[in-house]
């Protein structure tokens, strides 16, 4: 049995049945109804890295609640399977979705996190990836007012608060050779993360790791970073100090779009060098 945590590769807001791009710096997504405005959320996950024939044991979708318009009242939300391809262009109409919810969940007093079993929906996506158009999250009854909640999205600076899908599955051995990509970096100056390794796309990776070796004379400060869009990166784990001649390994926790290594010298104004080796098994 294997377990993997996926993050959405696409995320959009729907306002009064019209698609709207999320605000670039917003750390939250709105869902529900407030002041006669109806908010929905679209999220899509990429499972192409799973070997063909893998079977799903269970799948849980997790959201972290940042705000509730009526924190003392129970509010019921629904997850629907989107049944048609859609455009992410602003001002297009919300895509068609199955009117029967794939799952429902309740947010009420004291709710900060929800975990929703969407095993059946995930099995459908993996079984027929050409029909994986994502899911739509909305109030179960959009005629009820003041049901708005705000949930953290993949712009949040803390990856622990990102929406995610935790998938437990029975893996099938795939005979593909791992790839090795080596980078040599030099001229590192301390103070800020001013230098980064090349970003690696995770969508087709069965597994991946970054090996960092300090080949210089001064220490390094290194950190793995993850991004859902290839533009904004946040830490995936804590910083590590790598002393001269030592090595460290970084294994991504979240499977979304891109990962990279951020690095700097551990001594202010001192120069050092390093090797970064990216190892992955791709399908």
Please name the defining characteristics of this protein.
283 residues; mainly beta; Jelly Rolls; 2 domains; 13-stranded mixed beta sheet; 23 strands
Architecture blueprint of SSEs:
Elements: E1 2-6, E2 10-15, E3 18-20, E4 28-34, E5 37-44, E6 55-68, E7 75-81, E8 103-107, E9 113-117, H1 119-127, E10 135-139, E11 149-152, E12 164-170, E13 179-185, E14 195-196, E15 200-201, E16 205-214, E17 220-227, E18 234-235, E19 240-242, E20 247-250, E21 254-255, E22 258-265, E23 274-282
Parallel strand pairs: 1-21
Antiparallel strand pairs: 1-12, 2-3, 2-5, 4-5, 4-11, 5-10, 6-9, 6-11, 6-12, 7-8, 7-10, 13-23, 14-22, 15-22, 16-20, 16-23, 17-18, 17-19, 17-22
Q: Overview of this structure, please?
A:
The longest helix has 9 residues, at 119-127. The protein is 3% helix and 47% strand. It has 283 residues and is mostly beta strands. The two termini are 19 Å apart. The chain folds into 2 domains: 2-170, Jelly Rolls (Sandwich), CATH 2.60.120; 179-282, Sandwich (Jelly Rolls), CATH 2.60.120.510. The strands form 3 sheets. Strands 1, 2, 3, 4, 5, 6, 7, 8, 9, 10, 11, 12 and 21 form a 13-stranded mixed β-sheet that branches. The chain is globular and about 65 Å long. The chain has one helix spanning 119-127; strands spanning 2-6, 10-15, 18-20, 28-34, 37-44, 55-68, 75-81, 103-107, 113-117, 135-139, 149-152, 164-170, 179-185, 195-196, 200-201, 205-214, 220-227, 234-235, 240-242, 247-250, 254-255, 258-265, 274-282.
